[in-house]
Model the fold of this input.
Amino acid sequence: MFKHVNMDKNDAAPKVKSINKEKFWAIAQIVLLGIICIFLIVGVSIVASIHYEPKMPEISFSIPPYKYAAKFPGPHKDQGSRNTCWAFALASYLEDSYRLNGIKKGFLKENEYVSFSVQSLAKLIVEECQKKENTKICDGYGQGPQSNTTEGGLPEWFYYLRNIHNHIYPESVCPYITKPGKDFECPGLEERMKNDSNPIRPKISRIHTAYSVEDMKALLREQSVGPVYFSWHPRNHIYIPCDTTKQNERNDQTVEYSKICELQKDSDSFVECPSYITKNKDTDKCFDWGAEPMNPEAEWYMAETFELFFGHIMQMVGYNDEWMTMKGLRQGEYGEGVGGGWRRGEKDIEPGREGAAYGRGAVGGDPERGVIILKNSWMRGSHSLNFFLGKHSTWDELTICPNVNNPMNWLSCTHLIFDDEKAPKTNAMQSSKNSNHLRTEVGQSILSPKQTGRRLRNIINHMANNLTQNLNGDEEKEMTPEEKSLAMCLDPKSSQDLIELTSQAHEFSCKDKQYGCDSDKYRYFFDSMKSDSNQMYYMRFVTILKEDNKTKGEFTLNWIPLQMISSVMEPIKEQRDKLKDDIDLCGYWAIPYSVIHRISRETEMPTASAFEIDWSDSSYECNSGSYPQYDYSLIKNSTHTQNQYPAWDGPLPYARRNNK
Done:
């Protein structure tokens, strides 16, 4: 069954070769497969180690500062009785831009500035506007060119009128004339222009304008120079309760009405009272008093009923997101009102009624937190820039900007000496967070809204004790705290010491005899004030008969708006002269963001404009040697040194550390 095959060596050789070839290819395939696997493993590992990040746009998460101020703003100036606010705002902007450039380049010291001529600037701009080729530029807002006057204009005109860019002159070329009618008077200007000897040479390349609060703040930060700010401003309607018919009919009780009602009895400004007035008083007739949009604390505000009355231009020099206005305090988280008008936790307040301090409150009752800070060209009560920035205390502020016509700053002459046991007990008899306002219930008297005498209690008590000891001599006569206080105000030496110590006025004179005061017969010393639920103020003065300088009496102002008080009573001249605002540091006002928003919705949006300016080195006196063709005498005569803020040493009045 089996076939035997003989195999010798020659037969076997070819078969062995065939087998070795097959093994070789098998091994080669295995090796190749291994190499491929290794490459695959290495490749996968390399790919896996690569982290892919898609390219994303860069996003900045920087938060702008909550308060900011322009660098080196110059002093405030007074426009007088002329409507030239636009020229003052423009000159102030140009001065600050020139100054900042000079300080950066080392041409000016930090406390130096050159004052530019508002008189010549306004004259040249209006005359240029009156040229036929420029009518399209200057038509519209600003009636000055059409009326042949500098009263009424816009700072932005300067950007478009290139012919006058090299005609910015220092103030010594001609002084500003505060009275109307001499708008185009500027002796010496024509000769300067003919000689072309003015070294101030700006190159103005661009204008930037912002229309919203946040954009205005951003423009200020970018420029570091305050832009010029334009806005329409309201005339607020303040309703003063008056109804003489009901007063006469109600003989069963006395109803107090403001003296204004009697003085304005023939006026056509009597209207039906708003509901929040009639709710608290038995009256339905009110006198509609049109009030300016500023309170005595240099803050703009808007009542619920108002009309857009006038346009005004200032220079925006800062902002503070944290600043709470007086009106905001009345309708916000810190209570409602200052002094006698504080109320907390009342549930029956009419919606929207919370801010009735200056007429009915802002719609919705939102706190007026956050303000832009402006340098104003009005010579009225104002604050310093650093005060609105919250950089020093209320007491510190009184020493540089006493604002003597602000009733909130007046010092009581009957409550300088405090008897803690006899002090009135109220629910909130304490100093407020940012000032010395005393919080009391509605209708209760307050001594003085900023009673710095309380903070200087020990010093004043020591002064009073020395004075009364000299007055009494060897007699042992007990004087009440009120008598001691009044004695200090009556004594000439002590009165001067009080002025030096508190920076507050305490003796007053009558400005309007219609209200029943008479400075020919009496001396007037502030006693106390209170407010009703409608924020009408009641003010009491102690009177001293001038004939004997002894007989006491009293004079009261019945329910009068806070803003109207200074039109009836004012500090005596000696104290006004002593307590003058530092014009280098004061002159700043604040407009709440809420007011700007309301104006934006009611009329055209407020604007803030700034220029890109490259000031030639020839513009500075220190470089006069390099520019012999120019006359630098005007710059030299217009270069001034600005006062700096005092170096206050902590919050305690007159406290200084002994470093010995």
Q: What stands out?
A: Residues 1-17, 246-255, 330-366, 421-447 have pLDDT under 50 and may be disordered. The two ends are 134 Å apart (CA to CA). Residues 79-208+612-641 form one domain. Residues 296 and 462 are 33 Å apart (CA to CA).
